[in-house]
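Action item from last meeting closed. Structure (355 res):
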């Protein structure tokens, strides 16, 4: 879906005036402000209810210079930029302290930068000719938005403009790589997988915090978005499991029975649903599990993890639309993009898992 020139002109006017604009990228919808505007940056945190120590990512147009954003560009960054930009890859570099406000970086001396490949983001950034900081365009902690409607659900009435570019292609936020330390680390997995990065930087590895969020109480300043706080959470209690279908049936029956005893009401007052692959949903149907549930939400086929990545945040939002109290989610293999899927799924569940 192409964004019209009139909408782009309005977006530029708003950004330069210190306002915020929601726009599509290939990953998720972002809530943008001019990177040099302290007022715009303040409005991002205000609209989202975002913690001030959670860094923002600076988005630049294809071919744009990083002058005024990064103090220097590490050689490894140049390698990855040549290979993966434009695309869903964010690189952390030393910050240009004369231009990038500390509010952008959560007080850090580093800055996260990416060059999105999505048509809507490219159009906006090229038209405006300015760097734009943008976290996901949702209420902080909620599943990230992959459609303009998702943005409207969370931020309608709080922001002046939402640019509708249709559904996002990737569906998960960008991979984040820290290049400011001796050993390069993936701080957030995404569509650009560790295996893909290793072809170009063989000694790169996952940060130890990737497979579980840093405690909210930890006195740690997160170096990248999403490292510290619970994210993507549906309103219901999400439980992740890789158990066979017959075990799901046992647990769901137990949940219904327990709720009935505790509440003294009909079993249907507790709404239970599942988020799983098509293969698992077929097994659950054969076991008679789905007839016990109020919703069965598909993540596509196991052999197509890219589809699961694209559908995940929408599935979590569907769970809220169905008013589910308890949600059973299928744990995916961490191979390839599965690492990114499970990173988001685990954070959405607050790490409540049955293994």
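Sequence:
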């Amino acid at each position: 879906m192409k964004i019209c020139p009139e909408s782009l002109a309005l977006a530029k006017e708003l950004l330069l005036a210190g306002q915020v604009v929601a726009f599509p990228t290939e990953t998720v919808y972002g809530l943008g402000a001019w990177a040099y505007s302290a007022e715009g940056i303040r409005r991002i945190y205000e609209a989202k209810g975002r913690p001030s120590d959670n860094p923002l990512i600076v988005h630049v147009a294809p071919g744009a210079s990083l002058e005024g954003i990064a103090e220097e560009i590490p050689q490894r960054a140049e390698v990855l930029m040549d290979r993966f930009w434009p695309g869903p890859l964010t690189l952390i570099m030393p910050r240009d302290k004369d231009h990038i406000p500390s509010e952008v970086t959560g007080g850090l001396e580093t800055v996260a930068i990416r060059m999105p490949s999505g048509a809507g983001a490219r159009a906006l950034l090229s038209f405006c000719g300015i760097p734009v900081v943008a976290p996901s365009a949702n209420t902080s902690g909620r599943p990230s938005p992959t459609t303009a409607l998702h943005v409207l659900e969370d931020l309608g009435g709080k922001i002046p403009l939402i640019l509708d570019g249709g559904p996002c292609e990737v569906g998960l936020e960008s991979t984040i790589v820290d290049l400011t330390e001796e050993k390069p680390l993936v701080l957030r997995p995404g569509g650009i997988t560790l295996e893909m990065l290793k072809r170009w930087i063989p000694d790169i590895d996952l940060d130890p915090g990737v497979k579980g969020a840093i405690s909210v109480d930890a006195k740690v300043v997160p170096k990248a978005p999403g490292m510290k706080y619970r994210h993507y959470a549906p309103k219901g209690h999400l439980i992740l499991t890789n158990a066979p279908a017959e075990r799901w049936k046992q647990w769901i029956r137990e949940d219904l029975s327990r709720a009935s005893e505790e509440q003294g009401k009909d079993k249907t007052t507790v709404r239970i649903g599942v988020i799983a692959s098509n293969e698992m949903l077929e097994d659950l149907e054969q076991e008679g599990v789905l007839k016990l549930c109020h919703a069965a939400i598909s993540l596509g086929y196991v052999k197509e993890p890219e589809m699961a990545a694209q559908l995940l945040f929408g599935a979590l939002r569907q769970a809220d639309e169905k008013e589910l109290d308890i949600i059973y989610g299928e744990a995916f293999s961490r191979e390839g993009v599965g690492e990114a899927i499970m990173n988001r799924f685990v954070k959405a569940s607050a790490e409540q898992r049955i293994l």
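Note appended to the action item: The chain is about 35% helix and 15% strand.
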